[in-house]
């Protein structure tokens, strides 16, 4: 059904702009009401509701009201049983008065917290097995009390040894890869191997509950080339048998000749057990487990006995060989030894397991499935390594190799780019189509919505992060333990405060409230908000938005004729944070506490902070506008790299990689000297200062970067930057209607332009400016800035008469419903009931962002073959711009002027 047919059939009813039906049966999996976990005010709980079966040690973030927690205040954790638990705490943000705004916390491994627990302002106990760190010129040693690792300060190995109970279980952990110089089918390619080379090692935390070792380096190709700089962190918790690894690399190759064939984490495992007491395990899906021995003794023509068979199947040491029937024990030399095993997951929907006896002999297909958990074990009854990768199948193509399981040392490789897949190809997807001049590029923009410019669609400088876990086991884990570890690796236990407790602290600007279905109209909005998040969760899976570079992002706009999102059309494909879906999802989580919403928002942040932002090169500090490829658009802008979209994840989780990216963009405004975002626009008014800064998208991004840096460090230079810029904007007669200010990247100062005609962009306020201004006004007392912002909020959706009277121009109004939240903000700040009513009227207009949902089932369609390749549910009237901005307007209007609805 195309848009015209949809409208004819009543898809948008002007008389019922707010009508919300139940979903049709075909969309039953996207229920209007999200399933929220039971969260008790005053308590912490696990994100998914129940305490994880594996207690591996965990880290989380916690907010505090201004003035409630002073620096150096000791904190402890009280578990569900009332016992004090060891807790390591550190500040991650400060309020303007110097009190702590956010803390991060870590608890030891192996300790039960229960489902509900509390932080107390008192000193807690020390851990029974504190993490200990010893440093020398050659290495850093970390001892959790269960496992000891040694980290060399140079060389190719990330970890030289992993030991347990005084025995080396594993050694020589390193990064490996393959690259080839040709990719076309008829080309003869040369393949080169490379491995990690450590440049610097530092200890970021040294216990007593959590230690963090940071390794920075590059990859070395045998012929001498160094490339793919990486940052890797090792996390070790008190009492833990595991090491968490977070690895990020930046692509800095030549996309015309550097085609990555494989990227992996490799380590060796010492084998001490008899061949039949060794074990290889792969966790599949739905708690499935593939478990075999390099030398199987089940199914033989002669029976070794039930006790022997049962022990091997369970992973226990078998009875002494002398107790076996002699007609079996004497013939073991004839039973093949399977040295090599591979699980490959080349797409999101299929994996295969194969094995062979040794190199030079054929592979035997063992089994297949759809979505492997990405967790495996190699070792024996006396110990080995259980290892896995987070988001394994989602980040395909991936692979697990186990080699030489029948030798004295086995070799395991967890490939986060499978060497069995086609080489990674990050070249731009078309030849430019003759777009040489700005005029040609702007004309092409009018048909494909793609902002092309030669040389700009490059992946040079984008990054990707992969998380791994290595568990140093004293014995082969049971089948249940293996599956439980796979769950923990894929969905790490995350602690969270109750939504009402986060709300009470006043963090994130007070632009959200708890769900409220107390009236029919509020219920309609709440149901639509919940449905919208669930719909996107469903779309991720139905549309297969997975893959190494893609997982975490969503598409921009729908194609109602093909029944697909416009994955191949210019600027309509991958969304790249356009119009703030990140903000919409994070605010949705804050108010609901819903685990599925958190995981959707987290995946988006983990993608966008790495792939959609440049970390090296000419475009460092900038992000890329929406495109068929994440790096494809020539619009490299601050509005995509803004800290406004990532700070939620950092403060709620304490994630160090997200923290690194927040640091990277502190001075991203300097990139304006290298790339002028408005370079293609003719007849621009001159501005004072060396560079141009648009008062909406640019300033909102720079302000969020400086605000986040000020919060995280307490460094007054960032406060002074903010106040200076705010006074410049507020002191200018045109304020936010000036459009563009001058900016000096060296001094970080803004310069007001000369008085001129009002310049208004419908995009100024939809990339985080609303949300960041709410926090700036909350935290900094700059009356003129507040007045300028409230004036803009009041006038944007005002009548033409009011606009002409105020700024001398009846500028057009676009995105009226999203901007209703500006009207609502002004109404709340000024306690203006008439303005509040106007805001709800703007929100309810049946425009692009209004509630286009009627009781007609044709508004939400089930589409099946032969119209589509796979059955899908579609809402043909919905786009990600709509969802994000409507969602933010709904959330903020309910919070600010809910009583006026």
TrEMBL record:
Residues 492-900 form the PcRGLX/YetA-like C-terminal alpha/alpha toroid domain. Keywords: Signal. It holds the Pfam family PcRGLX_2nd. InterPro entries: PcRGLX/YetA-like, PcRGLX/YetA_2nd, PcRGLX/YetA_3rd, PcRGLX_1st. Residues 131-481 form the PcRGLX/YetA-like central beta-sandwich domain. Residues 42-121 form the PcRGLX/YetA-like N-terminal RIFT barrel domain. Residues 1-24 form the signal peptide. This is Tat pathway signal sequence domain protein. It comes from Gilvimarinus xylanilyticus. The lineage of its organism: Bacteria, Pseudomonadati, Pseudomonadota, Gammaproteobacteria, Cellvibrionales.
């Amino acid at each position: 059904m195309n848009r015209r047919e949809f409208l004819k059939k009543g898809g948008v009813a002007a008389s019922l702009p707010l009508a919300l039906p139940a979903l049709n049966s075909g969309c039953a999996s996207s229920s209007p009401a999200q399933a929220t976990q039971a969260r008790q005010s005053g308590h912490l709980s696990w994100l998914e509701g129940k305490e994880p079966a594996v207690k591996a040690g965990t880290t989380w973030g916690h907010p505090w009201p201004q003035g409630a927690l002073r620096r150096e205040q000791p904190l402890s954790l009280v578990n569900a049983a009332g016992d004090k638990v060891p807790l390591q705490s550190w500040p991650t943000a400060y309020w303007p008065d110097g009190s702590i705004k956010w803390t991060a916390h870590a608890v030891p491994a192996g300790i039960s917290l229960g489902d509900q627990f509390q932080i107390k302002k008192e000193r807690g106990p020390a851990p029974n097995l504190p993490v200990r760190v010893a440093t020398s010129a050659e290495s850093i040693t970390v001892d959790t009390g269960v496992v000891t690792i040694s980290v060399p300060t140079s060389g190719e190995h990330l970890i030289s040894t992993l030991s347990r109970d005084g025995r080396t279980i594993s050694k020589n952990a390193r990064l490996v890869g393959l690259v080839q110089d040709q990719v076309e089918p008829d080309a003869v390619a040369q393949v080169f191997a490379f491995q990690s080379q450590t440049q610097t090692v530092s200890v970021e935390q040294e216990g007593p509950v959590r230690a963090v070792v940071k390794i920075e380096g590059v990859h070395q190709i045998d012929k001498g080339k160094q490339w793919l700089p990486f940052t890797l962190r090792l996390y070790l918790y008190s009492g833990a048998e595991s090491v968490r690894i977070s690895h990020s690399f930046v692509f800095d190759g030549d996309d015309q000749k550097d085609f990555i064939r494989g990227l992996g984490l490799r380590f060796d495992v010492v084998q001490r057990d008899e061949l039949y007491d060794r074990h290889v395990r792969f966790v599949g899906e739905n708690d499935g487990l593939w478990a075999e021995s390099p030398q199987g003794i089940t199914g033989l023509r002669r029976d070794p006995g039930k006790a022997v068979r049962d022990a091997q199947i369970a992973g226990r040491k078998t009875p002494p060989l002398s107790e076996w029937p002699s007609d079996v024990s004497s013939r073991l030399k004839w039973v093949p030894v399977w040295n090599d095993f591979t699980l490959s997951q080349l797409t999101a929907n299929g994996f295969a397991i194969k094995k062979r006896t040794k190199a030079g002999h054929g592979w035997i297909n063992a089994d297949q499935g759809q979505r492997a958990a990405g967790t495996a074990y190699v070792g024996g009854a006396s110990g080995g390594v259980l290892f896995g990768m987070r988001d394994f199948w989602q980040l395909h193509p991936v692979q697990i190799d186990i080699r030489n399981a029948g030798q004295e040392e086995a070799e395991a490789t967890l490939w986060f780019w499978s060497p069995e897949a086609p080489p990674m190809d990050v070249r731009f997807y078309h030849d430019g189509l003759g777009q040489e001049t700005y005029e040609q590029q702007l004309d092409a923009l009018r048909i494909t919505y793609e902002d092309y410019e030669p040389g700009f669609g490059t992946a040079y400088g984008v990054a990707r992060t992969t998380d791994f876990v290595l568990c140093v086991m004293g014995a082969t884990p049971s089948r249940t333990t293996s599956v439980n570890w796979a769950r923990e690796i894929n969905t790490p236990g995350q602690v969270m405060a109750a939504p009402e407790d986060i709300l009470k602290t006043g963090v994130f600007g007070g632009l959200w409230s708890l769900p409220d279905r107390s009236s029919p109209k509020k219920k309609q909005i709440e149901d639509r908000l919940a449905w919208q998040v669930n719909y996107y969760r469903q779309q991720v899976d139905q549309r297969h938005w997975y893959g190494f570079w893609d997982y975490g992002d969503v598409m921009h706009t729908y194609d109602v004729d093909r029944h697909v999102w416009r994955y191949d059309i210019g600027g309509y494909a991958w969304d790249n944070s356009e119009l703030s879906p990140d903000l919409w999802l994070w605010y949705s989580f804050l108010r609901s506490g819903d685990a599925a919403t958190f995981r959707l928002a987290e995946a988006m942040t983990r993608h966008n902070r790495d792939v959609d932002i440049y970390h090296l090169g000419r475009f460092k500090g900038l992000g890329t506008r929406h495109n068929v490829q994440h790096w494809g658009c020539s619009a490299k802008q601050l509005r995509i790299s803004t800290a406004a979209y990532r700070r939620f994840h950092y403060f709620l989780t304490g994630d160090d990689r997200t923290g690194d990216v927040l640091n990277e963009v502190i001075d991203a405004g300097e990139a304006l000297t290298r790339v002028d975002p408005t370079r293609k626009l003719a007849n621009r008014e001159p501005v004072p200062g060396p560079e141009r800064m648009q008062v909406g998208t640019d300033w909102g991004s720079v302000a969020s970067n400086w605000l986040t840096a000020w919060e995280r460090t307490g460094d007054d230079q960032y406060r002074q930057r903010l106040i200076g810029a705010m006074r410049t904007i507020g002191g200018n007669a045109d304020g936010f209607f000036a459009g563009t200010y001058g900016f000096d990247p060296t001094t970080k100062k803004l310069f007001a332009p000369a008085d001129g005609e009002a310049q208004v962009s419908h995009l100024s306020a939809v990339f985080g400016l609303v949300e960041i201004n709410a926090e700036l006004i909350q935290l900094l007392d700059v009356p003129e800035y507040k007045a300028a912002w409230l004036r803009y909020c009041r006038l944007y959706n005002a009548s033409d008469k009011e606009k002409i009277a105020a700024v001398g121009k009846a500028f057009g109004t676009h995105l009226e419903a999203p901007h209703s939240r500006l009207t609502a903000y002004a109404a709340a700040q000024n306690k203006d009931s008439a303005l509040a009513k106007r805001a709800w009227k703007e929100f309810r207009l049946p425009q692009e962002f209004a509630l286009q949902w009627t009781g007609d089932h044709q508004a939400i369609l089930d589409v099946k073959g032969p119209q589509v390749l796979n059955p899908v549910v579609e809402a043909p009237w919905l786009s990600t711009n709509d969802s994000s901005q409507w969602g933010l307007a709904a959330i903020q209007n309910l919070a600010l002027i809910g009583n006026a609805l």
